[in-house]
Description:
- The protein is an alpha+beta fold and 380 residues long.
- The protein has nine helices and 13 strands.
- Strand 12 and strand 13 form a beta hairpin.
- The longest helix has 22 residues.
- This is DUF3103 family protein.
Amino acid sequence: MSQSRLRRAAVAFAALPLLALGAGQALAAPAPTPTPASAPAAVSKVTAIEDEVARTLAASLADPALRERLRAATATLADGAELARRDAGLPGSAARGLADATARADRGIAAAKGLGADLGPLLRVQLADPSMRAALDAGTAPLVATAGTDEHARTVRAYDTAGRARGLDAGTLPTRPVYLVDIDTAKALTAGIALLQRELAAQGIAPAAASDAAQAAAGWWGTKLTSVQVNDDEEPWFKGAAEMFSLVSGFGLDGKVRVDSVAMPYLQYDGTVYYPNQILVNWSNYKYNLADVVLMEDDGDTNYLALAQAVAAVLLTIADQGAYIPLVNAVLAALPTSWWTDDPDYVESWYTLARTSSGRLNGARGNGWMTVEPYWVSQL
């Protein structure tokens, strides 16, 4: 079954921090915030933390009462949110122990993604597919796995209630219930985009005040994204919904390379057309009538700090020569090598988007398309 069919069928019955779910098993303390040079290690750290949380949660589910509490919590979002509270009915010390361990895991993931340690809960758990609900309700003991980032994996490691690892076929939906431990990528994306823009500005890319003098009293021209689709890649059942963002690049009014990050949290499923009516480009920020767009995906392991620093290091070497220069290749050249191996964090790109561009624009990779139109944003 294709990922798009599974994703449209699957409802995230619960997305909750892993608090008050077990007997307080300890998790390893998070590593310090990585530098760009250690970005590949940071990626593996995210996977390792999620895997340890999955093992811990699976062992906790040996308790029948706890298993029932999680089953009920994943039935609706509201129930899941209720279970996440420390006063969810478990002994105080056990709830506090797992809450503290989960908080350490959250901080470790935030550090690996280059985000602040005060971001708050990032981990969540949900049933892998609604078809597993009947077996779960009938009392079948569940497995716990992670929504891994390797889309080409042949097997998925899951844990049973005895803490033993089991291999699941990545290409076949299991008949036994499986809970997936995943990152709240919507929350991480929001924080990551903010960090990305701050870091780029600090490096001299996309200066915050560059467009002030250009803002006409009556308003400014923008490019509105009216619809967009990314092709179906037949991804496996254990992949959660994607969280995407775009890097729009060109030359600013000061003649320096400029990059604007645009969050696209609605763009989650392959093979689905979205109609965001979103402003993609504010042309008052740009010197020339052309810009480029690179579409990226946060599969859970994206390190926004490393991304910003890598992109800035490459783009700062490009000087305005009095004419538009395509910047897509420079942005792609800045991506860490690991992003070209296991998971397609680079999704699609569009060259030479103009202020007057309209209609359907196919991506350079042939992996997606978007329709755009000029849009006048008037001041009140």
